[in-house]
Design brief:
This protein is of the alpha+beta class. The strands form five sheets. It has a seven-stranded antiparallel β-sheet, with helices on one face. It has a four-stranded antiparallel β-sheet with strand order 5-6-7-8, with no helix packed on it. The radius of gyration is 23 Å and the shape is globular. The structure holds FE2/S2 (inorganic) cluster and fe (ii) ion. FE2/S2 (inorganic) cluster binds next to loops.
Length: 362
């Protein structure tokens, strides 16, 4: 179960270059494309003529052309033209039923979609990303398709104890287990923090220190501050600073820190589109460093993918089995509780909307 009256990242702008993109989000098969004015549009991936997926078509003058018989659809879900569609010699375009459109917003380097009630789509509810609009920050990231429930990925990101085992050669280190995480809830947000002092920076962070022109062979303080925001965004402050300079609060000349960016978009109950990346505010102009960090992160996150898919298969094969909630799982457990509450709220909100619509239709 996932929230629908909310904004999810649907795709990255470069996925829409010159062609439509078919993508299932929250169980809805959607086709995304750029209209004649360059604005991104999203409609259901179903041609009103004979039901072919519109995403198999192509773009012509900003209109989406169905690849089967050439029906053309605009961003409003209306048919704009159809070869040979004439009744008694007169164009009958208006007789083609309108298809469902989905609200979309392109912002912060992502395309966001609202798969719930159009009437409730509120651009003001878009997750604000200050770093995405700040020239002092650089971002590099990618996309993985993962066959798992989106909540398994939230659990994974809200408990970084797994780094020692899953990412042993890059960001894992035994000191992670010795530093107990603390979890707190702030409204609809969950924050799980872990701090380590006087440790050796693991390989990924040693590279980042060098990338920022800092020594990588001195003791460091390390931090991991995981922040969950509904519906499924997890931003993690991570980094190291030369020991004794204040850790997370150290002056920029002593630290290498970043925000791990995770947008988890449900595709179905057991699969996700995982938009991952890293935003950093040191050496933002160094595109080579951005590429190197991205490459390191891609490898690390592919390790999560393997374990999460195997975990999902095991859970599906053992539906009655109980799993444990230990202290390290507090971040994921609290996040799930917030989601459960919001899902109940959303169901009530949707029922009220239906009632109003039925009353006004009567
Ligand atoms: S199915 Fe799309 S034009 Fe015929
Ligand atoms: Fe991981």
């Amino acid at each position: 179960m996932y929230l629908k009256n909310t904004w999810y990242v649907a795709c990255m702008p470069d996925e829409l270059e010159g062609k439509p993109l078919g993508r299932q989000v929250c169980g809805e098969k959607i086709v995304f494309f750029r209209g004649p004015d360059g604005q991104v549009a999203a409609v259901e991936d179903f041609c009103p003529h004979r039901g072919a997926p519109l995403s198999l078509g192509f773009m012509r003058d900003g209109h989406l052309v169905c690849g089967y018989h050439g029906l053309t659809i605009g961003g409003d879900g209306r048919c704009a033209s159809m070869p040979g569609l004439r009744i008694d010699g007169v164009s009958a375009i208006r007789r083609v039923p309108e298809i469902r459109r989905f609200p979309v917003i392109e912002r912060y380097g992502f395309v966001w979609v609202w798969t719930g009630d159009v009437e409730l789509a509120d651009p003001g509810k878009l997750h604000h990303l200050a770093w995405a609009e700040d020239a002092n920050w650089a971002y590099g990231g990618g996309l993985y398709h993962v066959n798992c429930d989106y909540r398994l990925m939230i659990d994974n990101l809200m408990d970084l104890t797994h780094e020692t085992y899953v990412h042993a050669s890059s960001i894992g280190q035994p000191e992670i287990e010795d530093a107990a995480p603390t979890t707190r809830v702030d409204g609809d947000h969950v924050i799980t923090s872990r701090f380590m002092e006087n440790i050796k920076p693991p390989p990924f962070w040693a590279t980042a220190l060098r990338g920022n022109g800092l020594a990588d062979d001195v003791p460091c303080d390390r931090w991991q501050i995981c922040r969950f925001t509904p519906p499924s965004h997890v931003m993690i402050d991570v980094g190291v600073a030369h020991a004794g300079h204040g850790g997370f609060d150290a002056d920029p000349q002593h630290r290498a820190g970043s925000i791990v960016v995770d947008f988890i978009t449900p595709e179905s109950d057991t699969s996700i589109w995982y938009f991952w990346g890293m935003a950093r505010n040191f050496k933002p102009e160094d595109t080579e460093l951005t590429a190197r960090i991205r490459e390191g992160q891609a490898k690390i996150f592919s390790e999560d993918l393997e374990i999460l898919e195997a975990q999902q298969r095991n859970l599906l094969a053992n539906p009655g089995r109980k799993i444990l909630n230990l202290n390290i799982d507090a971040g994921g457990v609290r996040s799930r509780r917030i989601l459960e509450r919001l899902l109940e709220d959303e169901q009530r909100e949707r029922a009220a909307l239906r009632e109003t619509q039925e009353t006004s239709d009567a």
